[in-house]
Amino acid sequence: MDELSKDYDGKITIVKVNVDENANTPAKFGIRGIPTLLLFKNGTVMGTKVGAASKSQLAAFIDSHL
């Protein structure tokens, strides 16, 4: 995610949330597995990806929602 943050600088904001420290977050967004990537636009979830993925897989997922 750190590399993707650099690649998409100025296009998207990447935020990491520790679900152990933010116990309400998983229930709020229906998160059942970790890691989970949620893409938001104007506060609305536009896409969800659950499970480990390569940098290229994550980039393709992000690009499909830009």
Automatic annotation (TrEMBL):
Q: Which UniProt keywords apply?
A: Disulfide bond, Electron transport, Redox-active center, Transport
Under the heading SUPFAM superfamilies, the entry gives: Thioredoxin-like
**Which is one Gene Ontology cellular component term of this protein?**
cytosol
Annotated InterPro entries: Thioredoxin (IPR005746), Thioredoxin-like_sf (IPR036249), Thioredoxin_domain (IPR013766)
GO terms for biological process? cell redox homeostasis
**What sequence ranges are listed for the domain Thioredoxin?**
2-63
One GO molecular-function entry: protein-disulfide reductase activity
Which family is it part of?
Belongs to the thioredoxin family.
* Record-given protein name: Thioredoxin domain-containing protein
